[in-house]
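Q: Given only this backbone (151 positions), what sequence would you predict?
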């Protein structure tokens, strides 16, 4: 995996060349087509993913079995943050809205790096926290829009 691809993502800004090189060894690029299900809610998160291009819907299953789109992710966005946080279970499904490609970083290797290098681990946890804040904000917008439609 070329380091240049990883450098495109702000999630890795400020990391050392050695850290980027280690990440590149556990990384692969994967393509997807419109409609592909990239992962399923409830499964174990095998990798952290970063969208190179394309669009991906995060889909949540409601108690009645109906699925709703909670957010649409674009180029540069990260998904499957559960790869870094126990119990490593995916909290949503991901469905390609438009064809594209993404970077997959193997979860176990990334977690090992976080454990071995506390500064790197802290950096990655800050990125996950930022991601979660963004997802919560998007969900608030979706919930508000749903209430507005019913009013």
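A: Predicted residues:
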């Amino acid at each position: 995996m070329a380091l240049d691809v990883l450098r495109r993502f702000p999630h890795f800004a400020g990391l050392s060349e050695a850290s980027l090189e280690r990440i590149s060894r556990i990384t692969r690029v994967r393509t997807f087509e419109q409609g592909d299900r990239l992962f399923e809610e409830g499964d174990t998160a095998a990798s952290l993913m970063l969208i190179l291009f394309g669009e991906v819907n995060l889909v949540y299953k409601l108690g009645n079995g109906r699925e709703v789109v909670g957010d649409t992710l674009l180029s540069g966005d990260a998904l499957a943050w559960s790869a870094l946080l126990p119990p490593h279970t995916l909290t949503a499904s991901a469905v390609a809205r438009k064809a594209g490609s993404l970077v997959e970083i193997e979860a176990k290797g990334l977690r090992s790096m976080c454990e071995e290098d506390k500064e790197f681990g802290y950096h990655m946890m800050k990125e996950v926290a930022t991601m979660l804040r963004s997802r919560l904000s998007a969900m608030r917008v979706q919930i508000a829009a749903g209430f507005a439609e019913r009013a």
